[in-house]
């Protein structure tokens, strides 16, 4: 991708956008906002992938993330105590340890990027990236492609078995009782 | 100078900014009183906030969608090289698609697509 | 500001967005307003500039009416259209824009709208006092009115509560009282539902506010037939017109406002000779899948629940041949046969009502002066009208188990297919006693 | 040079969207008058939309007790942006396209898939029960139509051997896709109506929810939401014309004129269907989309693929 300065500016905008929206995900009380901040963060990463020349992968990342983040928003609103953040939420456990771990992980990941001098041999941008991906799928990694299909099938069946209550053999939780939350019940049994 | 993707980004950001500018024209001096901002469900005030743990009746279908959506990632490159690769591409994608359609058939029989 | 005035002047000529409240006796007159190209009946007060208050409104609907008026954006004005009932005690009766008995309604509404936009009439301030319904500021750690995760009344309203559900998830249950002026229901119909997601867990229609006896609806041919013989031609024409009016409202509920206008125009200019065009209309609706797509299998009521309730088209759609006209010798001469369907769902009710409209027109065409028996029992368009109760009250008892388990769209379709009319409670309670029947 | 410079592209797409939205407003009112057996008046159909827009610009924007105001502001802007990106992908002539990246089809698909985020945000933000029902209903509708829509469009990429829209239209020079893949266009139109939630598949803003996600909108918010919806319908109709009706190919007339004629033809077809077909139940649509539309779209892909071998 030619363009020099403008490309750098856009890259830094995307990178800063990804970081800020990623940070906002954990600082906002509303679950829907958190999900859509995460979506903005993934879209920024998709933008960076497009800048790297992997147009297809970047756009497919953005495409896939839309559906998944909407489902995440719906499921988070369903299961979190404070769905819309009307009451301020404090969901942090041992946050000092967490902050230290976060900084440490960032340092470990960022160090090689800065210290190692990468060879400066930019190979030409692939003119038919998608076509090469297609040939790869149908050629050497055909096995990966088919096992991915079987993996997706098992995911679908597993999801239906776990999440759906009604089914061919009647209610899924027939004969099972919901575990009681109180501790003393457990000891008395 | 930035290529077609740059123009697409410019069009997206440009129209976003234009519409946000138009939205800002709707500013008004007078603050709204409490009765003027009651949500409308037919005239009576709502008893509770609408924001609640909304029971999306299609949550199992949504999860099946997550798995099935990955199939699109493989379909794009396949469609590009389909004519070049010839029948081998047809057979291979046929297997892949049949496997996934089995998942839909199973989900249909388990009434996943009806309201939970 | 020049731009704003120019826009206001330009907007003066636009189609007037009106949110119409069709009170007692005004339902047909208000619906016919929409036929004019310069008035548009909108779905929510947020889209309206003119609030049209027509007909009689019982006293306990005045507070929701004030809330409706305040929910409209500036510039807003209210036009009251008494249609014979005095609007004295109404909160909005102070507004100067009133449609008299001899004014042409469409002109009056568009004149009010144009005056509003040109600044001649000032936009009306909110009626209700500017006080928070539940005072909440300052409560809770950040003064947002709540305590803990989901406690208290954050920002003035409590949060919904958890509830068990048929698919094993304990999630929030939303109690909604879909108010007296929901655009898809007749004015005054209050639907109290408890919803989990968009599924109705419990639904109940509150008693009709028109039943207080403080109002007596205009006496139509059906109420007159309760006490005196009425020409069959007149009563059948009224029945056909009523069925077409219902079809027009139901089409708006199905998302076809333009087609509804065509049916409404036919209803306004209805003559006994239109039987064939009503049959053609019914065929075209069936061809466009109007009854089947939204009504097939929705709102099914079992025949055994309906026996003895004599709910007219609703009973006949479920397979019960009950029709008070069958016992009337005048109809026997004209070879009257009640039209019966089988499924008892919303689609069957569509077919029965449209078929009955066509049949009534044919009866009206064939009638040569026969008169109804006047025996105190009359087959109204919505079922047997008797001295003691109205179809609305008899139907109310069926609604809870009809609505339970329906998705919201199906619940609205089912209620629309039952043709509920809260004003009937006013008809029966205020039936003229024998002495003043003339 | 397969892209215009950003300012020209933005202006071109903006003008095309504005013209499309105005055309939809005029066509919709005219068809409503035709179907409703009313009297078509010059003032009503041609000048009416401009006057109604002026009213909405004068009207004050309403808010609710505790909305998510940034979300409420973002929703129409996001939907207009997505419609602009989708429209930018559609080539007017052989070398006249606002932007034609080599993966133009994937960019168009991403714009279409993001519509569910804009509509859910628009329904969730006012914190009003009817609007939220509309938002969740569109969640089910969007998750159901995404796969059939992408598969229905994917069949057009097979003969072109590329994901660039210009190549897709070029490949239709001998034979239009509507002839070569008969199942493609009807499938695309059914799901295109679902994508732009118009007419029979207008479930989020349905009349049984008293306007659904836009029940609390007034003033400039209502104007921007209605024009964003219309802009998305323009984009869907334009891409349908490019992908299935041979884009700029056509005898006698120059390319762009053919493109406009075909897009307006599809637009009129969608608008007439909007006024004749009743609303579909959401539960029926989910089942139909998964169990009938996806297999049909796959059959369409494999049959048209087999014919190419």
Describe this structure in words.
The complex is a heterotetramer of chains A (189), B (116), C (438) and D (309). Chain A has 189 residues and is an all-alpha fold. Chain A has helices at 5-27, 31-51, 55-79, 95-115, 129-138, 142-163, 183-188. Chain A is built from seven helices and no strands. Chain B is 62% helix and 0% strand. The longest helix of chain B is centred in the middle third of the chain and has 27 residues, at 59-85. In chain B, 56% of the residues are buried. Chain B is built from three helices and no strands. The model of chain B has no long low-confidence stretch (mean pLDDT 90). The interface between B and D is large, with 67 and 87 residues.
Based on Cα principal axes, name the global outline of chain A: extended
Number of strands of chain A: 0
Cα radius of gyration of chain A in angstroms: 23 Å
Largest sheet of chain D: none
> What does the average pLDDT of chain D come to?
92
The number of helical runs of chain D is 13
Radius of gyration of chain D: 19 Å
Secondary-structure element order of chain A, as H and E?
Answer: HHHHHHH
Number of strands of chain D: 0
Mean pLDDT of chain A: 87
> Into which percentage range does the β-strand content of chain A fall?
under 5%
What low-confidence regions of chain A span 5 or more consecutive residues with pLDDT below 50?
Answer: none
Structural class of chain D: mainly alpha
Strand content of chain D: under 5%
Number of helical stretches of at least 4 residues of chain A = 7
Quick description:
Chain A is mostly helical. Chain A contains 7 helices and no strands. The relative contact order of chain A is 0.06.
Provide key terms for this protein.
heterotetramer; B: about 120 residues; mainly alpha; D: about 300 residues; globular
Question: How are the SSEs ordered, and which strands pair?
Answer:
The complex is a heterotetramer of chains A (189), B (116), C (438) and D (309).
Chain A: H1 5-27, H2 31-51, H3 55-79, H4 95-115, H5 129-138, H6 142-163, H7 183-188
Chain C: H1 2-12, E1 16-22, H2 27-33, E2 39-41, E3 50-54, H3 62-70, E4 77-81, H4 105-118, E5 161-163, E6 171-178, E7 191-196, E8 199-205, H5 221-225, H6 232-253, H7 257-268, H8 275-287, H9 290-295, H10 303-306, H11 313-317, H12 329-333, H13 346-366, E9 378-380, E10 383-385, H14 391-396, H15 399-403, H16 408-417, H17 423-429
Chain D: H1 6-35, H2 42-58, H3 69-89, H4 104-113, H5 115-124, H6 129-154, H7 157-160, H8 165-170, H9 177-180, H10 184-195, H11 220-244, H12 255-276, H13 282-308
Helix pairs in contact in D: 1-2, 1-3, 1-11, 1-12, 2-11, 3-4, 3-5, 3-11, 4-6, 5-6, 6-10, 6-13, 10-11, 11-12
């Amino acid at each position: 991708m030619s363009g020099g300065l403008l490309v750098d500016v856009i890259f830094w905008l995307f990178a800063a956008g990804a970081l800020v929206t990623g940070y906002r995900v954990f600082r906002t009380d509303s679950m829907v906002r958190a999900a859509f901040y995460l979506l903005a963060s993934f879209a920024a990463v998709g933008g960076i992938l497009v800048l790297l020349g992997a147009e297809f992968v970047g756009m497919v990342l953005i495409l896939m993330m839309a559906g998944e983040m909407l489902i995440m928003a719906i499921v988070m609103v369903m299961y979190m105590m404070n769905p819309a953040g009307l009451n301020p939420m404090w969901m942090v456990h041992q946050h000092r340890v967490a902050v230290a771990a976060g900084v440490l992980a960032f340092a470990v990941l960022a160090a090689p990027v800065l210290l190692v001098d990468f060879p400066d041999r930019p190979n030409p941008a692939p003119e038919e990236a998608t076509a090469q991906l297609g040939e790869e799928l149908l050629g050497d990694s055909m096995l990966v492609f088919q096992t991915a299909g079987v993996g997706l099938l098992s995911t679908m069946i597993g999801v239906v078995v776990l999440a759906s209550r009604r089914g061919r053999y009647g209610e899924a939780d027939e004969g099972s009782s919901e575990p009681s939350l109180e501790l003393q019940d457990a000891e008395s049994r | 100078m930035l290529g077609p993707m740059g123009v697409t980004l410019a069009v997206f950001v440009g129209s976003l900014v234009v519409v946000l500018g138009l939205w800002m024209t709707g500013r008004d001096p007078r603050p709204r009183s409490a009765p003027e901002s009651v949500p409308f469900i037919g005239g009576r005030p709502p008893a509770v906030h609408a924001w609640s743990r909304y029971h999306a009746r299609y949550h199992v279908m949504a999860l099946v969608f997550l798995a099935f959506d990955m199939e699109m990632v493989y379909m794009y490159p396949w469609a590009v090289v389909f004519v070049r690769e010839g029948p081998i591409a047809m057979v291979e994608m046929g297997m892949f698609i049949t496997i996934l359609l089995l998942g839909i058939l199973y989900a249909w029989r388990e009434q996943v697509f009806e309201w939970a | 500001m020049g731009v704003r005035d120019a826009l206001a002047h330009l907007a003066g000529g636009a189609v007037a967005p009106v949110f119409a409240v069709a009170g007692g006796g005004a339902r047909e007159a208000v619906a016919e307003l929409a036929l004019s190209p310069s008035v548009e009946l909108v779905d929510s007060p947020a889209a309206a500039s003119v609030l049209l208050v027509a007909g009689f409104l019982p006293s306990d609907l005045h507070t929701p009416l004030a809330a409706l008026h305040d929910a409209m954006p500036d510039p807003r004005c209210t036009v009251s259209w008494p249609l014979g009932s005095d609007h004295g005690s109404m909160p909005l009766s102070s507004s100067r824009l009133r449609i008299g008995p001899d004014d042409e309604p469409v002109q009056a509404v568009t004149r009010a709208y144009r005056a509003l936009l040109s600044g001649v009439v000032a936009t009306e301030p909110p009626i209700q006092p500017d006080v928070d319904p539940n005072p909440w500021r300052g409560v809770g750690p950040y003064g947002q009115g709540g305590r803990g995760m989901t406690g208290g009344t954050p920002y003035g309203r409590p949060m919904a509560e958890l509830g068990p559900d048929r698919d094993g998830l304990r999630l929030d249950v939303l109690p909604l009282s879909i108010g007296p002026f929901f655009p898809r229901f007749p004015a005054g119909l209050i639907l109290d539902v408890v919803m989990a997601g968009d599924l109705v867990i419990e639904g109940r229609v509150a008693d009709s506010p028109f039943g207080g006896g403080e109002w007596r609806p205009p006496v139509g041919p059906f109420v007159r037939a309760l006490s005196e013989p009425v020409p069959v031609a007149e009563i059948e024409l009224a029945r056909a017109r009523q069925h077409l009016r219902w079809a027009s409202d139901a089409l708006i509920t199905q998302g076809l406002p333009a087609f509804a206008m065509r049916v409404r125009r036919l209803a306004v200019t209805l003559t006994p000779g239109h039987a064939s065009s009503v049959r053609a209309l019914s065929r075209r609706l069936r061809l466009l899948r109007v009854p089947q797509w939204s009504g097939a299998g929705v709102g099914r009521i079992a025949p055994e629940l309906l026996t003895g309730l004599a709910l007219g088209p609703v009973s006949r759609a479920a397979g019960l041949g009950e029709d008070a006209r069958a016992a009337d010798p005048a109809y026997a001469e004209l070879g009257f046969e009640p039209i019966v369907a089988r499924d008892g769902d919303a689609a069957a009710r569509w077919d029965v009502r449209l078929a009955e409209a066509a049949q009534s027109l044919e009866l009206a065409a064939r009638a040569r002066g026969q008169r109804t028996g006047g025996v105190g029992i009359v087959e109204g368009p919505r079922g047997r009208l008797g001295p003691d109760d109205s179809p609305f009250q008899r139907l109310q008892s069926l609604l809870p188990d009809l609505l339970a388990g329906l998705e919201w769209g199906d619940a609205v379709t089912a209620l629309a297919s039952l043709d509920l009319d809260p004003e009937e409670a006013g008809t029966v309670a205020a039936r003229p006693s024998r002495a003043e029947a003339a | 040079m397969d892209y215009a410079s950003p300012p020209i592209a933005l202006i071109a797409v903006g003008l095309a969207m504005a013209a499309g939205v105005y055309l939809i407003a005029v066509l919709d009112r005219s068809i409503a008058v035709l179907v409703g057996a009313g009297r078509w008046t010059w003032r009503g159909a041609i000048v009416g939309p401009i006057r109604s827009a002026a009213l909405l610009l004068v009207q004050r924007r309403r808010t609710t007790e505790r909305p998510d105001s940034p979300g409420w502001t973002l929703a129409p802007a996001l939907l207009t942006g997505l419609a602009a990106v989708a429209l930018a992908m559609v080539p007017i002539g052989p070398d006249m396209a606002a932007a034609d990246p080599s993966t133009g089809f994937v960019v168009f698909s991403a714009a279409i898939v993001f519509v569910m985020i804009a509509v859910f945000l628009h329904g969730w933000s006012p914190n009003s029960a009817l609007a939220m029902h509309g938002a969740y209903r569109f969640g089910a509708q969007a998750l159901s139509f995404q796969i059939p829509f992408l598969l229905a469009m994917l069949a057009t990429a097979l003969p072109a051997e590329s994901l660039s829209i210009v190549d897709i239209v070029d490949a239709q020079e001998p034979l239009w896709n509507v002839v070569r893949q008969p199942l493609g266009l009807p499938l695309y139109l059914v799901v295109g109506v679902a994508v732009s939630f118009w007419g029979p598949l207008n479930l989020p803003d349905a009349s049984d929810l008293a306007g659904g996600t836009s029940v609390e909108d007034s003033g400039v918010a209502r104007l921007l939401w209605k024009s964003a919806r219309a802009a998305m319908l323009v984009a869907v109709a334009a891409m349908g014309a490019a992908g299935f009706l041979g884009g700029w190919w056509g005898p006698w007339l120059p390319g762009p004129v053919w493109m406009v004629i075909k897009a307006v033809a599809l637009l009129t077809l969608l608008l007439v269907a909007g006024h004749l077909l009743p609303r579909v139940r959401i539960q029926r649509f989910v089942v139909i989309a998964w169990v009938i539309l996806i297999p049909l779209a796959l059959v369409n892909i494999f049959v048209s693929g087999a014919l190419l071998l």
